[in-house]
Write a structure and sequence with these properties.
Helix content is 70%, strand content 2%. By secondary structure, it is mainly alpha-helical. The protein has one domain: Ferritin, CATH 1.20.1260.
């Protein structure tokens, strides 16, 4: 089983075709790229927050440091693609996806750390799955860019999940399944706003 097959098995569902159709439409490209850039920046920020909050965990520090650097490189690549296409980076309201996942994170330790890491694994896994699902519908430049992200995003998913398993001190299957069902609902439900991690567009 390759990394992408593992990710598809980890997730509760594939990205609905309705989202892919909307994302592949030419008029959706500015929103897709701007929100993608925001996602990369937020991913780097999440990794840095973990580094500041859990300073005594050397394996976490090393993995999150590398992850933050890679996400910022992806952010810069998004900006370059946007500039070349005349798309201006700007503020954009986030999808309900990440907030919906984080709303279920426990508030006391060590549950909080475990849940944050599991949520990180799902966000990275979904990003990877969507890059692969969307690439065949995009122009050659964007398709090449999205396929180039698969390896690093797949590794980020594995890093988050490995850390969650290592720090839990007990099986995490029930928490993973809890977030799997929640993530599936967020992906499959109708969504008023189109974003990189939104559900099925209703307009």
């Amino acid at each position: 089983m390759d990394a992408l097959d593992e990710i598809r098995e980890f997730l509760g569902c594939p990205t609905p075709q309705g989202w892919i159709d909307r994302a592949a439409a030419p008029e959706s490209l500015p929103v897709l790229l701007i929100d993608h850039a925001h996602c990369e920046k937020k991913a780097a920020s999440t990794a840095m927050t973990l580094m500041f909050r859990y300073v005594d965990r050397s394996d976490l520090l090393n993995k999150m440091s590398r992850l933050a650097r890679e996400e910022l490189i992806h952010f810069e690549q998004c900006l370059a693609l946007m500039e070349a296409r005349g798309i201006e980076y700007c503020h954009m309201s986030p999808a309900r996806y990440a907030a919906g996942l984080r709303a279920e994170v426990r508030t006391s330790e060590p549950g909080r750390l475990i849940d944050v890491l599991i949520v990180g694994a799902f966000i990275e896994a979904r990003s990877c799955e969507r890059f692969a699902a969307l690439a065949p519908y995009l122009d050659d430049e964007l398709a090449t860019f999205y396929r180039s992200l698969l390896k690093s995003e797949g590794r980020h998913y594995q890093d988050y999940l490995t850390l969650a398993q290592a720090y839990a001190g007990e099986p995490i299957a029930s928490r993973v399944e809890h977030f799997r069902r929640l993530e599936q609902r967020l992906v499959e439900e109708g969504d008023e706003s189109f974003r990189f991690h939104s559900g099925v567009p209703v307009h």
